[in-house]
Each structure stands twice: as C-alpha cells, then as structure tokens.
Amino acid sequence: MPELPLLGDIEMLTRTRGAWHRLAEHVLAPARYHETGRIGLRVTAGGFGTPPHTHGGATEALHVVGAELRVARDDATVAHTITTIGAAAEAAGIEPGAPAIDYMPTTPLDLDAPLEIDTGAAHVLATWFELGWSVLEELIRHAGDEAQPSMLTLWPEHFDAAVDLGNEAQGRRGTFGVSPGDDAHTEPYVYVTHWSDAADDDYWNDAAFVGASLPYSAVAATTSPHGTMLDFFRAGLALLNSPQA
Description:
33% of the residues lie in helices and 22% in strands. It is built from five helices and eleven strands. It has helices at residues 10-36, 85-92, 119-143, 216-220, 225-241; strands at residues 42-44, 47-49, 53-55, 58-65, 68-73, 76-81, 153-155, 160-165, 174-179, 189-194, 211-215. The strands form two sheets. Strands 1, 2, 3, 4, 5 and 6 form a six-stranded antiparallel beta sheet that branches. The protein is globular.
C-alpha cells in the first residue's frame, strides 16, 4: 500500500478537487447514465472512472487520471489532456451536464471555464481515494452480510466514496466514507455518519455534520494509514451497534 504523500498547497488541492468534481458530475456521470440509467462511479488507478458500459456498440470506460481523461473503447485507450468540461465531453462523445434525476448538481456547468489540475495535488487525491477504497472494501468484509452493505460507490454529486452499513430498522445504520475535502473541510478526510440517534461518545466530533471525521494529516502522521483508517471505521461501526444511553 503506497504511503500518503505530503498534502502540499491546500489552495491548489482545492482547485484540483473542484476540477475533478466537475468532471465527475458533468462528464463521467452522464456518460454512464445515458447508457445504464446509473450515475455511480468508482475509484480507479490514479483517479476515478466509470465502470465499463456499452456505448455505440463498443465496451467503454472513462477514467480521470491526473490531468488526463482516458477514453477506453474495447482494446484501445486514448488519453486527452483535460482543459474544459466542453472539451472533455466532446472527447467522451457525450452531451455534458449532470443527469436530470433526483438530485441537484453541486458544481456549475460552465463548458468553457478552464479546469485547473495540478499533477502533485491530483496524486495526493488519487492516493487518498485508492487507500480509502481499499479500507472500505476491507471494512465491508469485516462487517459481513448482516451489516446489509450497500454497493461501495464514488458518488459524483458528493464526490466521495462511501458505503452504508448497519440495520436501519434497528436504528443502527450509518454511512462510512472517504472524502477529498469540501467547503467545511480543507483537508481530505474519512467520516462516519449515523442515520438515527447513536450512543453518546466523544468519537462523534464533526462540527459540519452529525457524525465523526478524521483528517488526512492525522492519518498520514501514523505508521499505518491503512490501519488507522480501518480502526476509525470499526470504532464507528461498534458505536452504531452499541446500546444507546
């Protein structure tokens, strides 16, 4: 498992995250939705992408890797330097814009606005996503079928990778996720939310939402980022399953 790189310039990280988020909402999600009726994405090597789907008679997948959009059709992959949403959509052969379904896009659709992507910042985000995805997969295996796991998904509107676990009927369900950061969190972070009242505990520490979070810097400072993330998630799962006060 790769070590977490230094965070670097937070402003550049934020701009890069914003560019990736726009691509997720307005290029990759619609590309998948037009063919399958689904918007969910997944973490892939060096970034994120769509699961394979059929487009124009070919098996296709789109991947954002650093500052490139890679369009894989059957056995050929063409890399395009990312410049704008309009150019990326043209390279993908789709009409840009978040699918008109039951959510409002959280990023603007501006076809010609330059997308600023710093390769160092993209490497930070990609490494964080890859590590978090692998930890969430391990958490799902640890939780077992009785936790009724949802499908692990990178959601384009929130732009985070997440899975729901726990018995909702018993008030013990929550969301476990990996975020690249947002307006309330300048650093990437991992988080756990609880859907119903949970046992009182200092673990539930986040001021922006009802739940707990652990920032990138705290994870990176440990000798085992993978183990630290996993322990954080397991602690949240244990609290969800514990008797309420």
